[in-house]
Amino acid sequence: MDILESFWKHVDKRGPMDCWNWIGAIDKDGYGRFRQKSAHRISYIIAHGSIGVDNYGYSLMIAHHCGNKKCVNPNHLCATTSEGISQINMKKDYLGLKLKDIIDITNQGLLKKGINKLPK
Questions:
Q1: Is the pLDDT of residue 95 over 70?
Q2: Which sequence spans correspond to the domains of the chain?
């Protein structure tokens, strides 16, 4: 078995826009590990050839748009700086709070009207 086969053997591959969860070793921070490397970084390299560097020559970081640390779907990954990751996380947190607030407000309003679920 070659290295790519060995890598993909540890991935629960789903549809192209779904999370592909790493089912191999997981580090203490919740990220997949393959041969002492981060699985999501390897996935990004397989898909894009390289990660690249920032203006100071440091390797870029790989961010998860989905927020799932176990995800290795290249469609969910992007190369960015630490500032870029902070912006991605801030937007996710901001949108998450806003969506939660909207859902709570909507559910409360519907419950007051005697409706027990959101319309589909």
A1: no
A2: 3-80, 82-120
